[in-house]
């Protein structure tokens, strides 16, 4: 079947890269190469006004400014006597008398913590008698952990179950998994956080960009950690938490005092009021300008801490949050860069003109080089938005009336054995005819009337082609929703072998129209198995577009609310802006049948065709009947009939005999005719000689016998029969095609048999 790829990333707005070095904060080991620095220089060595004794203190502090921490766990359990601080200190000094200790205690996790400032004592502190602390102790050595994001994991699949964790551990060395949950609603998300300690396996999964879970592939990417501001969920202000808050409690939704959001009567997001900025959103919304400021403040603190601690990794943040807070200041360097940009534009005016009218990529690249990526992104969003709204050539077929395009489409159908075909922008009118060999077509032509020109508006139109052998029925859209004149949708119901219904819709949404949310919601409610294919002009970074438009935002929300999936990969489908406009969307129930997605390279139009494959999605096919006459049986039956009586010879007796003979022939033909059924209407059935049929029957019997006996003699006989059958079939086919070519050498235009031969060849 034609198809598309699962991509619905759900990531926090503020993120930094999954660098394994970032995990050093909680993976420290007490060894000479990995020390934990807990104290800092209290005195400035460069301050020449300090007194001499200050210098001495500073030198002492510098020499002993590192603390090394070791953790141990008992092989059974630490006795209560070791909770006595004096007893614990005396016990350790008895065993390790010459060791310098700073701190020794047993924490709430029943772990023994030992801290020393002498690096030379680490080796001795790691070695303890086998009966130390009554039962012996073992050092806790934490390894680096690597975090993964598993995308589009069906919410009904319990990936945190014991069985799932065991399989993931065995196949990919994944130590643990955690399903993400939306805090505001408690709704499970398709995003799963996974952790592994195996760096090699981690790199393999990241490079492959997917893992196989059962028979399904799940997209994998490095986990990106979000930065959340310190917000009090009592008074909703930033900079502190609710434990230390003495302010009055406010509602997260309406900002009123005296109740929580759980008891708030307002449920419509349009009526929300933020307690911090007064806008129409919840006080914890990521779009809140005050929250964004708080995030930026926390970023600065983290960056300062990173510099202070000499951390050797770079923190990477989301472009969205950066762009929203960039107050670009134009100084002298900015002015120089603008001049450079103008010079670059004049160097190649033809490319600049093409970029303004066609594809803005060239201009955006120059802006990025001279003025920065953020400004390029902002300008790009406006340029691409205008292009999508004004360009009338954003089409798939660019009129299928062209016979060359019909031939190209027909070739694709044959090459990829397409079962279901979706066409957008057919440009067909009601009176136009369209046929594609092997497909049953369902159309919805554009009939919108233009009052100014007094003609139907040009363009538009959708069509679905379903393989003739598949049982299908057109969906009456008005039974599903109140259709408006802008909707260009055609739908078909297909019966599956398990008696369920598969609903397929071809949907074209022009750049100037709004997405019909009602259609998507109602279709998903009615059909458990739903597939929507079409040029939707919904643009979003969630499916790898360069920016986001209003229809893209609407579709994002619908996908999340209705548990629908985009099957596209990151390959652009629209050539001119290299965006992904042609989407395939499926319901969660269809996801388990999804196999593969491809964007095909074709010159049919300025959109590339897409091919999606589903496996084990078996349709209920129409069964076709055919018949074959056994002429030997016919002769025997006819010869067994009694002779006709013609006495006395007269007109009446002749008519009676003729009628009787006709009846006998019809009866013998009926009794000697074999009727059989088959699924594929396009499959050729070639009558073969009885000798070959006998060989086929003998081979089948021998195969059954060999399966039961597994005898070497039976195997030898089976091989001999197979070889003879193959030889006879090759000889028969060669003779048959030779005879057909000889027959066609005397080609007669009026002969239907000759035309059938040509069609078969």
From TrEMBL:
Checking SMART domains in the record gives:
ZnF_C2HC (SM00343)
Looking at the record, the residues that make up the 4Fe-4S ferredoxin-type domain are 262-300
Q: Which GO terms describe its molecular function?
A: catalytic activity; nucleic acid binding; zinc ion binding
- By its UniProt entry, which Gene3D superfamilies does this protein fall under? Endonuclease/exonuclease/phosphatase, Zinc finger, CCHC-type
Q: Name one Pfam family in it.
A: Exo_endo_phos_2
**Protein name as it appears in the record:** 4Fe-4S ferredoxin-type domain-containing protein
Q: Which organism is it from?
A: Brachionus calyciflorus
């Amino acid at each position: 079947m034609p198809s598309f790829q699962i991509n619905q990333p759900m990531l926090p707005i503020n993120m930094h890269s999954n660098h394994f070095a970032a995990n050093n904060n909680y993976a420290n080991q007490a060894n000479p190469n990995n020390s934990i620095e807990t104290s800092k220089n209290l005195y400035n060595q460069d301050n020449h006004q300090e007194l001499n004794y200050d210098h001495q203190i500073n030198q002492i502090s510098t020499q002993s400014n590192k603390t090394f921490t070791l953790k141990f766990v008992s092989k059974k359990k630490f006795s209560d006597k070791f909770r006595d601080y004096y007893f614990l200190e005396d016990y350790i000094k008895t065993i390790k008398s010459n060791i310098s200790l700073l701190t020794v205690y047993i924490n709430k996790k029943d772990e023994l913590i030992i801290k020393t400032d002498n690096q030379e004592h680490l080796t001795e502190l790691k070695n303890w008698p086998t009966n130390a602390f009554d039962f012996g102790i073992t050092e806790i050595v934490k390894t680096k952990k690597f975090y993964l994001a598993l995308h589009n994991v069906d919410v009904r699949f319990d990936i945190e179950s014991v069985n799932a964790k065991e399989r993931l551990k065995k196949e990919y060395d994944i130590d643990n998994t955690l399903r993400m949950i939306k805090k505001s609603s408690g709704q499970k998300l398709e995003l799963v956080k996974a952790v592994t300690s195996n760096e090699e396996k981690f790199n393999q999964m990241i490079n492959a960009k997917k893992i196989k879970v059962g028979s399904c592939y799940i997209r994998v990417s490095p986990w990106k950690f979000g930065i959340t501001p310190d917000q009090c969920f009592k008074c909703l202000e930033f900079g502190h938490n609710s434990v230390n808050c003495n302010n009055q409690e406010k509602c997260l939704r309406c900002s009123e005092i005296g109740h929580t959001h759980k008891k708030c009567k307002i449920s419509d997001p349009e009526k929300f009021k933020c307690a911090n900025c007064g806008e129409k959103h919840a006080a914890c919304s990521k779009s809140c300008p005050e929250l964004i400021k708080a995030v930026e403040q926390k970023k600065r603190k983290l960056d300062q801490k990173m510099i202070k601690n000499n951390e050797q990794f770079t923190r990477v943040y989301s472009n969205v949050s950066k762009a929203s807070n960039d107050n670009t200041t134009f100084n002298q360097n900015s002015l120089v860069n603008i001049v450079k940009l103008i010079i670059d534009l004049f160097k190649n005016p033809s490319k600049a003109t093409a970029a303004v009218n066609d594809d803005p990529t060239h201009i955006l690249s120059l802006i990025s080089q001279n003025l920065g990526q953020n400004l390029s992104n902002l300008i790009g969003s406006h340029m691409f938005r205008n292009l999508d709204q004004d360009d009338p050539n954003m089409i798939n077929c660019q009129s299928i009336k062209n016979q060359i395009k019909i031939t190209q489409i027909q070739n694709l159908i044959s090459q990829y054995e397409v079962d279901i075909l979706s066409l957008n922008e057919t440009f067909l009118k009601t009176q136009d005819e369209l046929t594609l060999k092997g497909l049953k077509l369902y159309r919805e032509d554009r009939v919108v009337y233009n009052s100014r020109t007094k003609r139907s508006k040009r363009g538009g139109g959708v069509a679905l082609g379903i393989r003739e052998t598949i049982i299908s029925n057109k969906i009456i859209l008005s039974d599903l929703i109140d259709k408006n004149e802008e909707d260009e949708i055609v739908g078909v119901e297909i019966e599956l072998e398990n008696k369920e219904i598969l609903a397929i819709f071809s949907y074209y949404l022009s750049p100037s129209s709004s997405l019909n949310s009602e259609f998507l919601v109602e279709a998903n409610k009615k059909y458990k198995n739903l597939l929507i294919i079409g040029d939707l002009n919904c643009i979003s970074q969630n499916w790898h577009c360069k920016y986001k438009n209003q229809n893209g935002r609407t579709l994002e929300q619908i996908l999340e609310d209705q548990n629908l999936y985009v099957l596209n990969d990151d390959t652009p489908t629209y050539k001119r802006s290299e965006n992904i406009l042609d989407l395939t969307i499926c319901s969660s129930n269809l996801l388990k049948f999804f196999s593969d997605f491809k964007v095909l390279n074709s010159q049919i139009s300025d959109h590339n065709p897409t091919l999606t494959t589903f496996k084990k999605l078996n349709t209920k096919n129409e069964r076709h009947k055919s018949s074959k006459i056994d002429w030997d049986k016919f002769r025997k039956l006819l010869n067994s009939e009694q002779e006709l009586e013609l006495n006395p010879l007269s007109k009446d007796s002749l008519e009676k005999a003729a009628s009787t003979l006709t009846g006998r022939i019809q009866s013998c033909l009926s009794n000697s005719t074999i009727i059989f059924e088959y699924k594929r209407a396009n499959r050729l059935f070639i009558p073969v000689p009885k000798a070959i049929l006998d060989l086929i029957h003998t081979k089948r019997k021998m195969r059954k016998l060999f399966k039961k006996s597994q005898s070497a003699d039976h195997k030898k006989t089976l091989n001999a029969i197979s070889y003879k059958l193959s030889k006879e079939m090759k000889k028969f086919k060669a003779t048959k095609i030779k005879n057909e070519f000889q027959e066609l050498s005397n080609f007669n235009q009026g002969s239907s048999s000759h035309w059938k031969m040509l069609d078969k060849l």
